[in-house]
Fold each of these.
Amino acid sequence: MNVSSVPDGILRLEQLPSPNQDVTVYALRGDATTGPIQRIETTRNLSLPPRRNFSYQHPFRLKILHFNDLHGHICHFTEHGEVPLFANMVSRIKALRLQAQERDDMGVLVMSAGDDLVGSIFDELLNAKETDHPVHVSYRLFSAAGVDVATLGNHDFDMGPTILAESIRRDANFPLLSANLTGSSLLQSQILPAALFIIKGVRVGVIGISTPGEIKEQWLDTFSLLNPIPTIHNILPALRPLCDVIIILSHLGYSISSHAAAMRYAGDVELAKSLSPGSVQLIVGGHTHHILNERGLSPSNIINGIPIVQAGNLGEFLGEVDITIRDAPAVTNARLTRTALLPTDEAFHHHHIEPIEKQVKPLLDRPLGRTANTPDLDTECIRNDFAAGESAFANFITDALVSCCHTQGYHVDLAFVDATSIRSGIPVNDVLTYGDWFKVMPFADTIILYELTGQELIDLVQDNARRIDLPGEPHIERGFLHFSQELRYTIKLDNQRSRIKARNITFANESLENHPDKIFIAASTSFVREPARSWEKIKSHDPQFPIFHLHQLPHRTTNLFLRTELVNYIVAHGGVTTQAGVRSDNRLTILYDTKNSKNQG
């Protein structure tokens, strides 16, 4: 059914196939963003089964298993061998499902709160040509494991609407939800605002909601994600009478105030504050990678009587929530279990995961070239010293970024990156494989072009100098940038961060002060300085500490993926070598004041 055939103000109920014999699934189709839903209508010849009667003496236990931000990490490949993750979750899912099959007073639903792909080597299987049978690894394995429902996270849109819609059609036999999604008939034909699950007569409504934050700019003219709060208020009054339990499956993030990820409009806390007590029984969240209620439901995670749960990221935890329905439903238990402590479902791993691993391992082992004998390439240097001064590894990446843009026909004057572009080091003086480089750049970051004047570039460099890691202080993410070879400058350190200055700022060996109005084009990435926002928030209250707001500069996307372009550059230059650009060339000089012994961050 095309969503355009459903009039505004109406959601249409239709039954979906369900692989779980204990659960009947219904789609709610329509656009929940246009205004209040006036009614929910059923398709022809559809009638819901009778409702279950509840009493204090005969309660029903609904078990919710949840995870979020898996990012395709169905397992970890380490130098010591493979660490199973999803197969361990499956063992718990199957055990509870088997238990529920033997009882009339128990039901199980399994949920993902989004960001199911982008961040693991398995992403590459989705980039395969159609003749190579592209695979959305997470959706295919969720289907095999009997996951009941998922919402869409920001990274689920990274590869574009066409690939996402095709992945859902091909690999997902469960409903994908995003109630605040609008403007795309392609996506809205595959993605629902809500779904209704009937488990042994118990009606469970699930509304999905997605963050508008961190959506790649190249897709913003193909669909929209609107303010989630009005959308929830549009749909909730119409859905409430139909359900015994309502759950919001959210990829908004925990709270706007947490600054753990880029967010817009609201997080789960702000959403819960907008709702009346009792209107929703549970918010299952994601996006900010919070570890909530690890040892039991915390009072601080109950807002307006609505518990909020979240299970970290990358498959480290499996969340479990009990909703007990007597005269009224209530969350009676919530906790997290480390997946490493769960047994592995060996049969599931053998039949479903091993064939996928066989497809991806040749990609991991593909050699790209050699690496330089330079300590700056090592992971220890990246983790400890990256923002403390010049980095030969960062020099290689920024210079390569300029070259890649020129190769692709984009004029750029310089490039800059921060630690978000470099997540790991690489083997030193060794063969470099694609798997090694994927660890450096695991996400689908695209190349962005910023436009700024000479004076703005001076201001950016001055701002950057104040973000450097100082000796004798804890290192945190402040968004310190490394620049390509065209730009050179000196940082004079001071024991007061606000007094740190950049000096002798030159571009192409000319002082930038001589060209304050010249327009420069700088290449960077779609995620630059995002983790630094919490530090920026703190410093924004200090009048002695002006913040340069990089994201307010005019900018445009190139639709080029950073990792893809860098891999092509590495292969063309025989590796990450001195000849390819791994060098320290004094583009950044640090002047230390040995009189200062106390530094303030």
Amino acid sequence: MPPADFDIVLLGDFRFPGGTSSAIAEEVKAGAAAGYRIALIHLEAPILLQPFPVNPRIRALVDAGLATIVDPDQAIEARLAIVHNPHALQGLPLRPLALRAEQRLLVVHHPPHTTDGEPYYDVPAVRLHAEETLKGEVAWAPVGPLVRAQFERMPDSPALAPEDWHNVIDAAFWATPRDGAVADRPVIGRHSRPDRRKWPDTRQQILQVYPDDLRLRVRILGGGSFLLDAIGAYPRNWEVLPFGSVPPEEFLRTIDFFVYYHHSRWVEAFGCTIAEALASGAVAILPRHFQGLFEDGAVYCEPGEVAERVRALGNDQDAFLEQSGRGRELVGARFGHGAHLRRLEALIGPPHSRSAPAHASGSRDRAGSASARQRRILFLSSDGVGMGHLTRLLAIARRCPATLMPVFATMSQAIQPIEEAGYQVEYLPFHGYLGCDIYRWNKYLHQELNELIAFYEPPVVVCDFNSPFQGVVDAIGDNPETWFVWCRRGMWRANVGAKFIEREHHFHAVLEPDDLASAFDLGLTAQSRDRTRVVPPIRLLDEQEMLPREVARRELGLDPERPVVIVQLGSGNNYDYRTALHLTLDHLARSDVQVVVAEWLMSERANSLPPSAVRVKKFPLARWYKAFDAAVSAVGYNAFHELIYARIPTIFIPNENPQQDDQLGRARYAERHGLGFCVRTREIYRLKPTLDRLLDPDERRAIGARCAALDPGNGAAEAARMIEEYAFIRRVERIRGA
């Protein structure tokens, strides 16, 4: 495969939630609009321990085709390679990149150390990794003068670019028409992420710059408990909003003055929020150390002088508008998209006509990622009394983009649906089925997983099980280039599974499909969220994949006119549902309904049924759900969500085996919210009257309407996107201090 040519390749960890990702997004917008061909190579930043998604701003640009996330193994030739943020090279990529660039730049978004000399990152290690990764000398480009000053004082400073590489913004996006003050008294405002270091050192200093003065209004976007701890109760003239509760561009329209003072130990590398405020026309009042960056575009003073400056400008509309105009002009000239294009032209000239997007030399999916070959993803499921683990993985696999090729390895004997779906599947017998000693079996599992990873070379292994087996943990340690994601549904029983949660840290991320009944979740997973990415409830089928009612009934041999009740009480392998089943069938036989009894592919015994009942053994049964008017069902994750989203009124009978999840919690949630009924096997006397309610057409219509009001989204697509993102992130070596 010939190498792909690009004008610019941007490298970094695109999951950063703040300024670094905003800077990358703006450079992509500006460069792509001018015709530059831009690729993104995703590197793991060891500092990011939470499973953040790709930053939404970057994701939107990739989805729009303005840049392409390329396979790190793909051969790339570029005129300019830019690494954003030294934290992205705190570790060395485990495999070399196939990238060659004529010019190489590292944009330094953070100073090397705090004002007290505490290092933010290991400068010698980052320099070594940069030169090794980009195959040559790399110029370091600070984002602002405060960062440059720290490097210039270092005796062994890396080679600095002659000019600072300022962050850029779309000035037109932030612009707000202003003809004077926004209210009857001056409004001071600020926004920043909720971080104590972003605020002055003491309560006195905070109240100097954000005064407790009823002649002024103070609006804060990004408050929190940290701020209350620092000052006590909020002053009467303050309005404090949670971070993210209002878009910053809307917030800036409501203030006159953007006042930003921070902690003495914090080094503000650039100040993107200040540039955005100036672009909006707000007058910025800042400490004097910002003057080298924002020059006459802002007002500078000591904390004790802020209130006086605000009142003076607030009472002089001409002076206010003149200062507002200076700020806008400075941002447009120095930090706008045009400034970025001028520095690109100075480095590499205009866009190159030979450059081409990566999909010209590789496969491209709907999200804009590109690869010279499909990346295999290994989906690993445990055994189970049902098919929940395997079904969730199949739901995700079906929604993977064309750049990914799902491969399955399962301990379940129900592999037929995976083969019928067209996927390669490997069978790994469970120790209980083999009658094998669990310690020997884990050694076998460890070896088998190592062989599977060596053969299929998956960048990601997605594991769906309740208990992380020792064999899996050992395989994680042996395969540092591979991401391991634990797909784990919640609703564990209270205080159960502590030894399993303790193994969570071995995985790089936890993927949790949300549960409609999550408000009733008392299990340990609800308390362990450090590595968890929650997606909406996962279902195998979307509604459009279900057969129309008349077709489904015809295929099942059902009368098209009479009501139909589906009875699906699970495999019965670990819970005795026979009494509930027989009472249900006996009572339904006395009414004018048709009864369908679902049997699981992996049931260990068949039930004795009356002649009038239709026995069904299909997968996925949800494909025929529109044939049914009501249901009696167990309350496993998949059945619960499939029935409710299909708007089928259901009596939920929980499997209360101690080894199962909290099915009773789900059933109680459904009954409390009018989404179904709950009947426990130990309260079997409630079954017949509840069946009578289920057969009442008015009851069914009311339940169906409440189910229809729920958000119909399917988290399987979002889970597949998460897996795709990890598949294109190059893992790195951990180094001391990372």
